[in-house]
Amino acid sequence: MMAIAVASPKDLAETCEIGEKKAMDIIEGAKLCADIGGFETGDSILERRKAVTKLTTGSKAFDELMGGGLESQSIVEFFGEFGSCKTQVCFQLAVNATLPEERGGLDSEVIMIDTENTFRPERIIQMSNYLGVDPEDTLRKIHVARAFNSQHQILLVDKAIELAQTKKIRLMIVDSLTSHFRAEYLGRGALAERQQVLNRHMHDLLNFATLNNAVIAVTNQVAAKPDAFFGDPTRPIGGHIVGHTATFRLYLRKGKAGKRIARLIDSPNLPEGEAVFSVTEDGIKD
Ligand code: GTP
Ligand code: MG
Question: How many CB atoms lie within 10 A of CB 12?
Answer without folding.
Answer: 19
